[in-house]
Write a structure and sequence with these properties.
PPIase_FKBP_dom, 301 residues, Peptidyl-prolyl cis-trans isomerase, 12 strands, EC 5.2.1.8, Chitinase A, domain 3
């Protein structure tokens, strides 16, 4: 802890000096790196475990427009790679240690076209910056990650079969006779619409409520009072089960989804621990609006 406190002090001095020398002229209170990333540290964690290339990181990530309109927020786990270009989002993670929180402004166009390999959403102008807020929850070396996964998978080896039993009991108890899709997803339509069908590149606004098979809710856009909007077909936007269902629906349609864990939060559960491993979940989904975009079939594989 003393070491960390010393680091805090040094980092504070460093940030202060940095702010004096590299103060952002675009975003008050932010500094700017030589590669053009505007950054501001929000909170320091208590760990000295700095993120490095090759590490696996778990982070809460949110994306907002240059005017701070939120269009994505979620927890993601992935392996850090060498930044492919100056100002890449990878640089943001490499500036942080485990537990740190920070805010960044990066160029939007290279983020979508090079990092996400998709088209720039129509609600962002080509020269705009976008805001990225990151809380780095965990940093693991590749060896640590593999060891954790091996131990975890060994421990829960039988959970997959247990999930199948629980899911079958639920389907039988609810007298649900809808056949699953080829992937194993159950889609139970609540209505039909002649609105536009969702296609890759469309900006889609949805409302959803997620709950466990026992009826307990774990997430709801309606309770938050904020629909979720995203560009369909982009990486890391929604779980695979929602991705598949949305691609089969039209604007105005509602459906109940029964999503096995391999299409939801998998063998690990979600990163905040609310949804355990090998847990089937239910989503009540509504396609509120579909704004047609530019198709990019390569993203919808």
């Amino acid at each position: 802890m003393k070491i960390k406190q010393t680091v805090f002090a040094l980092l504070g001095i460093g940030l202060l000096l940095s702010a004096c020398n590299n103060e952002s002229k675009l975003y008050p209170g932010y500094s700017v790196t030589p590669t053009g990333i505007h950054y501001k540290l929000i909170a320091l964690g208590e760990s000295n475990k700095k993120a490095e290339i090759g590490n696996y990181v778990t982070a809460i990530i949110s994306y907002s427009t240059n005017s701070d309109s939120l269009f994505f927020k979620g927890v993601r786990q992935f392996q850090l790679t060498k930044p492919e270009y100056e100002g890449a989002i990878d640089e943001c993670f490499l500036m942080l240690s485990e537990g740190d929180s920070a805010s960044f402004y990066i160029q939007a166009t290279p983020f979508f076209e090079k990092t996400l390999e998709t088209t720039l959403p129509k609600f962002i102008n080509p020269d705009d910056y976008m805001r990225v807020d990151i809380k780095l929850l965990e940093v693991s070396s590749e060896e640590e990650f593999k060891n954790q996964m091996a131990a975890f998978l060994s421990w829960i080896n039988d959970f997959g079969e247990y999930e199948k039993v629980i899911l079958k009991q639920y389907l039988d108890g609810q007298k649900i006779d809808v056949k699953p899709t080829e992937s194993g997803l159950y889609i139970i339509p609540k209505n039909h619409s002649k609105g536009p069908i969702v296609e890759v590149g469309d900006t889609v606004t949805i409302h959803y409520e997620g709950r466990f098979l026992n009826g307990k809710f774990f997430d709801s856009t309606r309770k938050r009072g904020e629909a979720f909007q995203f560009v369909y077909g982009q990486k890391w936007q929604v779980i695979p089960g929602l991705e598949e269902a949305i691609g089969r629906m039209r604007e105005g349609e509602k459906a109940m989804l029964i999503v096995p864990s391999h299409l939801a939060f998998g063998q690990q559960g979600n990163s905040n621990g609310i949804i355990p491993a090998f847990t089937s979940v239910i989503f009540n989904l509504e396609i509120v609006e579909v704004k047609k975009g530019t198709p990019n079939e390569t993203e919808h594989e």
